[in-house]
Every structure is written in structure tokens, then in C-alpha cells.
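User: Can you recover a sequence for this backbone? Please restate the input before giving your answer.

Assistant: Of course. Working from this structure:
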């Protein structure tokens, strides 16, 4: 209820400015934020990818890119949190304005462009703060905008080697629409080469550290259905531990006519829910019952989370729904999935 009272003031601000102010408050005063808006975490353990999750509901990558608010997410009841996307070098992202709310559709459009402080800053922060979150921590990795697409694997390998020790799992983000040519990495030949390089780097790193973090691949909702079985085959061929479906969409049919509907960038929230669920179902059919899948995209209620679980998700993540619904969404979804 407190979040619903605070939301009008936040929504009166530019979307990215409100985001920044919220993260600043959560990072500086996590205990106060927890006392005011937090809730007891629903404990309904699930083991996926060999990891024990306190519950099946996570925070999707993109909200806490630099891992600044782990203690706050603990109070909000998440079973796992995915930070990033992080790149080897810090970068500012695309010019502002670059984030837009579409409240009538419970949606966002963003063209942030992997703005982040870089892998060294994230590693240094996690050295100090990792213990503040007792759930599972994922780190979402990507390539710098200035890295040629032909050299993209170099950036992913750098991030994996540097951050592996801090991550419970790692997500390879090849599906953001806001880094030029990034989605080309989802084509068969490019994905085969990329995942091969990542698999080699992960095994070498795991041997050196004495542990092996699972690696997942996050895909776009805009892939044609015919491409999905081949994508599953490549992920399994290279020993990837799961897939995340899906990232934001470039489709705009659901928001045609909205004053921000034609903005460039990725559309998230309720308009992407149907396609995200369809992709998830097709991945499950291709992958079989035991290959881990995380469902994300348009989950805005406990019923949405339950439907995504029945469509084949082992775990779910929220982002835009969390912006519109607040912390109550986390508990409602975790409770539904516990049942």
C-alpha cells in the first residue's frame, strides 16, 4: 500500500530520473526501505541448475545494473536477483531521454544501451556486498557498444572470467535491441561460435576456481518459431545450463497510437506477455522436461506467474510489473508458485 501511495510522485518524474532516485534510496537506506516497503520472503525452496533458490521469483536484469541494492532486494522477498547487463568497460549508454512509461499498457520502452559502470566496478562492489543478499545472484553480461560484432566473444569471455567467482549463475545477453547488431549473435553460425568460446572459458575458469557457475542464454521474443529448436540444440551442444525467455520486443502493434508507442527501443511489460509465453512453450517442447528455463516478460500478477510456470518455466523474473505493482507483486507471485 505504501508503494501505491508513493508511485504517483515517482511517476510524475522522468522515468529514468525516478529509477535513479529509487536506486539511490535503496542503496543508501536498505534497512529503512525494507521496514517501509519490504515484506517477509516466501520460503518455498526449489533446486534448479544445482542451485537452491529460496523461492522461484527473481528480479530481472536491467533494474539494478551495477548491483547497488542487494540488501534492499533481500527485504522485498526475491528468491534471486540478476544484476547487469555489465560490459568489460564502463559506458554511458545511449543519449537521453531513453526510457518511457506507457501506463495505459503497463509497459515501458527503453533504449538504455547497456549503460553500466563496467565489470571491474561490479566485481569490487560485490567483494564488499555479496553477503547482503542470501538468495541466488545472477550476473548478466554483454558486449561494449564499441566492440565490433565480430569480436563480441572477447567481451563475453572477459566478463565471464572476471565475474565468475562472484556469480551463482551467469546470463549471456544476446537479445537486447539497444546495442547495434547484438541480436545478430542469435543466428546459428554466430551463436555456435559464441557459445563455443564461452564454454571453453567457463571450463578453464571453473578449473582454476574449483567451482562451475551455470551459464544461461537470454533470447529475444522476436525470433521466428522455426529458429527456436536450433537455438536449443546449440545451447545444449555447448553445455549451457538453461535459457531465459524473453527480453524486450521491437513489436509495436499493442501500443500503436500511444504518444510514446513509436519510440525506438525495447518494449517490456504486459504487451510482451503473450509472445514471451509462446516462446517459452516452444522452447520447452524442443528442450524436453529437464532443461532449465526462466520465464520473464509481462508478468504482472500471480496468475501470470502461475501461467508461465505451467507453460514450462522453472523460475520466473519480474521487472516492469514490479515497477507498476511494487513489492506486493513479489510475494503474490512467490505464494502462487509455492502452491
Amino acid at each position: 500500500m505504501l508503494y501505491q501511495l508513493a508511485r504517483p510522485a515517482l511517476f510524475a518524474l522522468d522515468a529514468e530520473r525516478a529509477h535513479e532516485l529509487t536506486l539511490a534510496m535503496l542503496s543508501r537506506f536498505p534497512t529503512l526501505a525494507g521496514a517501509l516497503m519490504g515484506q517477509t520472503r516466501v520460503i518455498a525452496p526449489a533446486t534448479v541448475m544445482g542451485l537452491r533458490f529460496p523461492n522461484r521469483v527473481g528480479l530481472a536484469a536491467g533494474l539494478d545494473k551495477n548491483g547497488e541494492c542487494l540488501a534492499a532486494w533481500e527485504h522485498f522477498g526475491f528468491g534471486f536477483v540478476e544484476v547487469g547487463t555489465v560490459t568489460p568497460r564502463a559506458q554511458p549508454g545511449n543519449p537521453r531521454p531513453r526510457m518511457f512509461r506507457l501506463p495505459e499498457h503497463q509497459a515501458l520502452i527503453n533504449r538504455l544501451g547497456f549503460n553500466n559502470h563496467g565489470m571491474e566496478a561490479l566485481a569490487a562492489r560485490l567483494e564488499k556486498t555479496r553477503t547482503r543478499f542470501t538468495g541466488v545472484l545472477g550476473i548478466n553480461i554483454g558486449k561494449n557498444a564499441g566492440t565490433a560484432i565480430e569480436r563480441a566473444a572477447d567481451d563475453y569471455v572477459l566478463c565471464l572470467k572476471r565475474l565468475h567467482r562472484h556469480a551463482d549463475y551467469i546470463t549471456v545477453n544476446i537479445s537486447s535491441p539497444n546495442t547495434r547488431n547484438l541480436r545478430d549473435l542469435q543466428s546459428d553460425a554466430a551463436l555456435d561460435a559464441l557459445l563455443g568460446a564461452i564454454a571453453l572459458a567457463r571450463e578453464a575458469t571453473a578449473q582454476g576456481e574449483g567451482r562451475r557457475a551455470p551459464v544461461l542464454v537470454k533470447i529475444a521474443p522476436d525470433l521466428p518459431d522455426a529458429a527456436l529448436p536450433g537455438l536449443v540444440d546449440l545451447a545444449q551442444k555447448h553445455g549451457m545450463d538453461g535459457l531465459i525467455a524473453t527480453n524486450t520486443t521491437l513489436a509495436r502493434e499493442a501500443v500503436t497510437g500511444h504518444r510514446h508507442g513509436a519510440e525506438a527501443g525495447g518494449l517490456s511489460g504486459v504487451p510482451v506477455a503473450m509472445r514471451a509465453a509462446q516462446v517459452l512453450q516452444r522452447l520447452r517442447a524442443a528442450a524436453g522436461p529437464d532443461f532449465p528455463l526462466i520465464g520473464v516478460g509481462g508478468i504482472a500478477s500471480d496468475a501470470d506467474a502461475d501461467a508461465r510456470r505451467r507453460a514450462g518455466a522453472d523460475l520466473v523474473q519480474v521487472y516492469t510489473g514490479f515497477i507498476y505493482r511494487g513489492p506486493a507483486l513479489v510475494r503474490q507471485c512467490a505464494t502462487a508458485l509455492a502452491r
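That completes the design. The chain has one domain: 2-338.
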